[in-house]
Every structure is written in structure tokens, then in C-alpha cells.
Design brief:
Helix 5 packs across helix 18. By secondary structure, the chain is mainly α. Helices cover about 35% and strands about 5% of the residues. The protein has a single domain, classed as Myeloperoxidase, subunit C (Orthogonal Bundle).
Amino acid sequence: MTSTELPSARLVSTTFHPDVSKDARQVTHMVTQFGQFLDHDISRTPTETTADCCLEPEADNCFPIIIYRNDSFYSTLSTPQTCHKFSRSVAFCEERATVREQMNSITAFIDSSSVYGSSENVSSLLRSGLNGKMLVNSNTSAFDKEMLPVIDGMVTAGDVRARDMPGLAAMHTLWMREHNRIATEIKALAKIPLNDEDIFQSARRILVAEMQSVVFSEYLPVVLGEQAMIKYGLQLPTEFSTYRNDVDPSITNAFATAAYRFGHSMIQGLIDMMVPTSGALKSQYLLRDHYNNMANYLAERGAGMEQILLGLASQPAQQMDRFITEEATNFLFKAAGSDFGQDLVARNIQRGRDHGLPGYNSWRRLCGLRAISSMAHRPAEITQGQWTVLRSLYRNPEDIDLYSAGQAETPVPGGLTGPIFNCIKAKQFKNLMDGDRFFFTHKDQVGSFTTDQMVEIKKRRLSDVLCDNTDIANIQDQVLLAISPTNQRRPCSISRQINVQKFV
């Protein structure tokens, strides 16, 4: 079957991904925010610097998004919009390659590069140079606790996207504080005097292992479901695992450009801030007004950061489905004083096309599902109502964008997404585990942990990191899951501490 002209990415967004609000029953907004934080630890695709791609749509590195004149939102503005600027991803080795490929500008490993940076230059910039600690905001009189440093006039962390929204900056701050907390303990407990470099590297080693443990023991079971964890061998070993030098841990295009963008469906447009000491609702804010706006993060001498974190652990996420809040589809990165922003979903779809991602049908074949023979034959993983909408947009099953169809699949048992996104994500995280020589459970490597040290790492949960670095008084043990009879709030005074003595 021959391919046909694809529908505008914006038309797919408005038709198939409208704003229909429905809270998730089992997971908190922390799943969404931690997922974004993790994404920024392993993947960043640089884009070309271009002129106005709407004015020069035929320019080599331009791929503007067409907005039809009858668009339900952009046509109603005081100045109607008919185009979104969109620059192509930077091409890798374009002068020698016959096929355009993209690159990852940060380290692919789960190595907390979002905390430490992906280069020596960034890492050095973020270090205080004293007692192994990370740099913090120098205006100590303005804040009650450590906040991210301001460098060249901007709140700065290991990833440049930390400023995208307050919740993301809060997550960066949480893990920066955790590093400094560990560094303080190492200095106090060391049997011999240690210099700044020794303390820094020791604290970093522990924190990276903590992060890896949280990802594989808490986050992935919620996202993928226990069946997938078993099927793909993603459960942490009871003792040790083995590094495989034949496994490529690089981030795949389908993962970064489609499957791991599943969390965009779970974004709440109206975000809660909770009082850390009481757990009461403090305030709410619309996301559209806080892109690249650190006011709520910095509020009340930095208490806003902790109010955001408890809000993330308390507020339900939006349900994982094909529906996306308009705070992301009409108001993404809205500039101050403007009445509109960009469309995250249209950008996801356009980015997949820019990268040449094969259509949804190709991934069905790769993941062991039967290919769709024609648009007249609905796949069992997508309901009839959703398939009817897809049929109105696409004439050929080979053309269906992976992102849209993946969002529409019925979730697998115990997981958040359907089988195709689960397949892509599970394979990626398996490679990130097996292909990382320094993964914290691997044996016989330089820096491998002892059995006792691994026990200390594994007992630590995300709730413990929150308790030990904020004024939160009570929190549920599993902060990615909603409060329930088996997941009640407990006092932060009983958090599980890592016995740093075992590491020095």
C-alpha cells in the first residue's frame, strides 16, 4: 500500500488529543514529574538554530507546523495563528551520512546527570569546591534552605531544562540537597580526612545508586506493571547482576521521541501546592502562567519548592489516555502577556516525523503484535471509538503516528500504557541496566558495591529522600501511588536512613 499525505500534526492534536480531564485513580502527579526529571537525565535532542521557519518554511532545517484557518483555538485569537515555528533536530554526521540521524546531547545512562551535568565543564560550574558539596543559591538571607544556584542571572542545574516549570526545578533541588546531605555525613563519618574531590565522588556514587534503585524498584513497576517487569527482566536482583558489554545502552529514537512522552497525557493543568507541615492545600496555579517562571518555586523564602513537592505527592495525575490538557496543547511555553503558546502534542508528532520514525504498524510487528492490514480492521488494543477518530485522520495504517496510537492503546494489566509503548520502554530500560558498567547492582566492576552497601541503597525510597530534605511532616511510603489503606501517610521522622558508615 502506498503512503498518503499525512494530516497536519496540529489537526491530529486537536482531533485526537483534546482536553478531557479525568484524574487517575491510583497514581499521583509525582509519577509525571519524576518521569520528566528522569527523561532529562537520559535524553536531550538538540535542535537547529534557525530564522523564523514560518517565514522560510522551505529552509533546510525548518519543518513548520501548519495550523488550519478554522482551528478551534488559534483562529479565535486577536491575531489568528496559521503556523508554529519548528526547527529540525540537529543532524549527526550529516556531511557523510546518506540518512539523516539525530543525536543525544547528554549521557544516556541513569547517572543523575540532571544533577551533576553531562560534561566536566557543567559539573565544575555546579560544585562549591568545599567539602564535596554542590553549589547553592548564594543569597542565603533570602531563603531558609538550600536552593538551586543562580548563575549568569538564571536558576541553574545539571540540565538546562530545569527552568521549564516550577515542579521540575523542585525535583532538581531535592536531589541537589540529597547530595549535600550525604556529603555532610561522609565528611563527619570518614575514618581519615577526605578532600573535596573524595567527598564529592563518594556522595555522587551513593546518590546515583539511590536514583537507579528508585527508578527500578518504585517507578518502573508503576509505569510498566509487574508482569512486564518480570517478562523483560527488570526487577532488581536479590544479590548481584552482571554487566553486558554487548548491550548498547543508547537511547532509541522511538523511546525518546514517542514512547517516553506518554506522561504528557498525565499532566495536570491546575497544580496543587500543599503546606509541608500540615498537608493542607495551600494554593493552586495554572501551568500556562508558570513555564520558565520560578516565582512559585522561590516563594516564601523557598518554602514554595516544598509546597510543590508535597502537592506532587498528594494530587492525582491525569489519567494516562489520549487526552491532553490545553495548558500543554494551546499554552505550552506561553510568553508573559501573550494569549497563546505552542502545542506540545503537535510538536511530539512533528518531531517523530522529523526523525523519520516508522509508523505505529511497524512497531506492532517489532513488538510481536499482528500488523493492521487496513483502516477497516481495528486492532484489539484500541477501542472502537478511538479507532473511528483515527480512521478520520489516516487513510493508511502504515501512516499512523506512533505517538498518537501509542497513547490510545488500552493499558496493560498493572501498567499505565498499552503493549507497544510498554515494549519500547521496557527494552530501553533493560538496556540501560545491562549496558551500564557502573549500574549499582553489577558485580566485579571498578566501584562495585558490597552486599551490605547494596542493602543500604535498596531500602531507600523516594519518600525518604523527600522526608530528609524538606519540612514535609507526613507522607505516604510510596509517593508515586495514591494514599490508600495499604499506603497511608506516615511520619517523616521514621524515614529509612542510609548508613553512610558502610561507604566510608
